[in-house]
Write a structure and sequence with these properties.
Blueprint: H1 2-18, H2 23-39, H3 41-48, H4 54-68, H5 72-83, H6 90-105, E1 107-114, H7 120-134, E2 137-144, E3 152-156, E4 159-162, H8 165-177
Parallel strand pairs: 1-2
Antiparallel strand pairs: 1-3, 3-4
Helix pairs in contact: 1-6, 2-3, 2-6, 4-5
């Protein structure tokens, strides 16, 4: 499944970037269509049913795309997924597409965890430090973990930067036990 999603995501990322389409808008439109599929089991059954002619499936897609003002290239991607009976992979394609676009546009996704809710100034400061560290623009997602005691933990991909009090105490404990 990952290779299927990755193949479609890479190809669509090529289209998005070569046509100067707004990447956020395109992924948002794909998420909206995915939401429709999640909400409507009837729509999902129609698009996944091999007995229903492709023209009818695309006609339904065209009606949805026209109603929502969906970009033609977004509509075309969904049509290809429908035609190749891969619409069930739409969510995986969207996830891979976001990763692909982030990589190509120079973004790093950071998961920042702190003991408490951070203020806007603190968030901007952390994002600035992470941007300097990675050399990329940062898309941060924030979470809270009271067990940290203080400080923050930043995860970028598989790399973890632990600036928490809990992490520092564990390092001291390890040093003493050695």
């Amino acid at each position: 499944m990952a290779s299927v999603a990755s193949t479609y995501a890479r190809a669509f990322a090529d289209v998005v970037l070569s046509t100067n389409l707004d990447a956020q808008r395109a992924t948002g439109e794909l998420r909206r269509i995915s939401g429709l599929l999640a909400e409507s089991s009837d729509l999902r059954r129609v698009w996944e049913n091999p007995a229903i002619p492709a023209e009818q499936k695309r006609g339904l897609l065209d009606a949805i795309a026209q109603r929502d003002g969906t970009e033609k290239v977004v509509r075309n991607l969904v049509a290809v997924l429908i035609d190749h009976r891969r619409v069930k992979y739409l969510d995986a394609v969207i996830q891979q597409l976001e990763k692909e676009l982030d990589a190509r546009l120079g973004f790093a996704e950071a998961q920042i965890t702190s003991v408490r809710e951070l203020g806007d100034v603190e968030k901007r400061g952390l994002e600035s430090q992470v941007a300097k560290l990675t050399g990329k623009k940062v898309r941060a997602k924030y979470g809270q973990d009271p067990s940290l005691l203080g400080g923050v933990v930043v995860r970028i991909g598989s790399t973890i930067y632990d600036g928490s009090v809990k992490g520092q105490l564990e390092k001291i404990r390890e040093a003493i036990s050695e």
